[in-house]
Amino acid sequence: MTSRSRSPRLRPLLLTATLTTTLALALAATGCGTEPVPDTRAAGPSGSADPAPDRAELEARASAAQLVAEHVWVTEAAGYALARQSVGVLGDDGFGSVYTEPEGGQIKLSVERLPHADADCTDGPASGSEQEPLVTCERDGEQWYRATESGHAYAREQGDLVVTLSGTRQEVDRATLRSAALAAHRADDHELDQVLPPVGETAGRQPVERGDLPPVGDGAPNNDVGASG
């Protein structure tokens, strides 16, 4: 009975001694008990745990490029990479960029203030309607998918903005376009640092325009004789 009554009293002492010894060994191994532990909580969609760039500097770079930092979105698709020279403003405060792959395929990303009809199919074709009639216009998860014979796009409303991923059906299949649409998100500070033009290289930058694209419509190439390539 005596040994049983002592056991509970010994456990806290043994636990304290064990923790003290473990802590001492850990401090001896590191040589210092005050080294800071890297904080990875700031990692955003980019997954980077590096210190975030200065926000004021990012805002200044965005302003110099006539962009609103909160309107800058990024995406990813297998085999595609952002064409940095394509980054630019759309309309008054929108954002546009182009992702390309080695074979010449392009996925356009646009963030704009557009009428509700430009995001879904409730009122028929989008305003300023396509040169080609729609062959598909349907809900796909939280987004809308629209397609003509030559071009297609995924679009979704984000507050008062419409985020659209588009391409030609010949260059980009629906699965790839859908993947890019699902991956699209507002750029975090690390991604802004990669997307925004460097200081001193912002004047007059606009999204790349292909000479064979019509001024209106869904962006399908104009293959008429005489069209520039």
UniProtKB/TrEMBL annotation:
Keywords: Signal. Residues 42-51 have a biased composition (Low complexity). The keyword DNA-binding does not apply. PROSITE patterns: PROKAR_LIPOPROTEIN (PS51257). Residues 34-57, 185-229 are annotated as: Disordered. The keyword Signal applies. Residues 1-28 form the signal peptide. This is Membrane lipoprotein.
